[in-house]
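fold description:
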Amino acid sequence: MIRRRFGRTELQMPVITMGGMRFQKSWSDDKPEDIEKVQQDNVNAIVEKALSLDVNHIETARGYGSSEFQLGKCIVDIPREKFILQSKVAPNADPEVFKTNFYKSMELLQVDHLDLLGLHGINNDEILDNALNKCMPLVREFQKQGLVRHVGFSTHGSAEVINRAIDSDEFDYINLHYYYIDQSNASCIENATKHDMGIFIISPNDKGGRLYDPPKKLSDMVAPYSPMEFNNMFCLKDKRIHTLSMGVSNPTDFDHHVESLRLLTEDMTEHTNIVDSLNRELQEVFPLDLKNEIIKHCLNYEKIPNQVNIFVITRLWSLAKAFDLVGYGKMRYNLIGNGGHWFPGVQYEEAFKKDIEATLKNLKYKTEILDILDECVDLFKGEEQKRLSES
């Protein structure tokens, strides 16, 4: 296992994290008697396999249903120094709610401290304010009591919100999205590094393109690597990134990712050439001038009529056209507006066209943007999607 210093926490973090979002029995807090032996045995086997591979960072959340309870059952007899444990609790405007949820996590996990406590889902300024001004005083008390070693945050928010959280200098680490297909948070990686924060990448295989079920075009373009290997290498060749979360549902899910680490020790010239080839393909479909105009004028969905999330929609379109990531695009597109602050904004509809056209009237690429929005309705529109925790 490759290890990296996790920023100012000084923890030696494995570059693969055992993510606890996909192995739980359900997304509700099931009663212990509702969890069947075979379901608990699977979690036990996952933890055993992780530790045998020296993947000793385990990450879960209060919002992951039965995950904490099932983890607690299998780690209770493992010496505490054998693993780095992280859980996440959502900030709340009422500090007592946050406090109650924190203690619930500790009870279910059956541990006397968390190595890492993440404030879960700092996705907008209101939640950031709750985190810093309502919940952080409690977190500092937890630290004084020895219940929490280090504090960080997870986010699906915009780079602007993320950078404001980083600049508060209240957090030791960050969980965020960053992959080959979505480098929107590049400035956040740079900023977090300046603050000596640990950097943890969320869901590189699912949010990074559903790479467990890749389209043939993408697979062909990244050969001889698999798409998951390619993306692991893309992230981890950047030494500022410390770990990738692997949301596993059975013990064999680790194998492919551990094997990909061997590739990091090899010559990276071929990987670099593939990145260059992908970049050319993407820019052929989505010219840099068009992309930059969208970033400059359409990044903030709140300033667009009907709050249509043009930035995200056009990015998904570009990936579908360049790499055939249509399935991924459908999944993400149909989450827009259906997941609260986790997937903000609104999908495009023909009825919005006149208002959006008026807003974009002075842009060089107005026609191209409107054409993309029109095409996305045919390309992506489908059944309404929900976050896993709301399914």
Notes: The two ends are 35 Å apart (CA to CA). The chain has two domains: 3-268, 286-378.
